[in-house]
Specification:
Blueprint lengths: L8 E6 L1 H6 E11 L3 H8 L3 E2 L4 E5 L2 E5 L2 E2 L16 E4 L2 H12 L3 E11 L2 E11 L2 H26 L2
Antiparallel strand pairs: 1-8, 2-7, 2-9, 3-6, 4-5, 5-7, 8-9
Length: about 160
């Protein structure tokens, strides 16, 4: 999906570290089963996605280690901050994910959390970990692109 904000989407949090540490192969969108207090915390932006990952278990996909801060006003029925959360996906998507993960070296990581049409969604990426050399190559490429843009900008200004 492009960086441009889609119609009716409100970004909660983006996993910026994911594209640095992983090479993203494919992406999927899934709904999340949440409690009311979790939705309130998400709307307030009190979520940490960096340590989170997803796993397929018994034909279902679960989002694990996603930290959703406890909601202060929910004192009667507070939620567990790092509980596993079920993801809502089609069976064929789950089968594709399972096949991709079994290829070896691939994992399922959340790339971003957002509200779409009032419902919480997560964008999952089938990813393979990058080596140090891959990371260095990406940094060198970004630096070269930035320098080229700067040079073009200076050329237009006549400097």
């Amino acid at each position: 999906m492009s960086e441009k904000k889609a119609e009716g989407e409100k970004l909660i949090v983006k996993n910026r570290r994911a594209t640095f540490d992983y090479a993203i192969d494919d992406t999927y969108e899934a709904g999340i089963v949440l409690l009311g207090s979790e939705v309130k915390s998400m709307r307030a932006g009190r979520v940490d996605i960096v340590d989170a990952y997803a796993a397929e278990e018994n034909g279902e996909v679960w989002l694990k280690q996603l930290y959703v801060a406890p909601f202060e006003q929910a004192t009667a029925f507070p939620h567990e901050p790092r509980r596993p959360r079920k993801l809502l996906m089609h069976k064929r998507e789950i089968a594709q994910i399972k096949k991709a993960i079994q290829r070896g070296g691939f994992t399922l990581i959340p790339l971003r959390l957002y509200f779409k049409g009032g419902r919480a969604k997560v964008e999952l990426g089938v990813a393979k970990g990058k080596s140090k050399g891959d990371k260095r190559h990406d940094i060198a490429k970004k630096t070269a692109d930035r320098e080229a843009r700067d040079a073009i900008g200076r050329g237009r200004k006549g400097a």
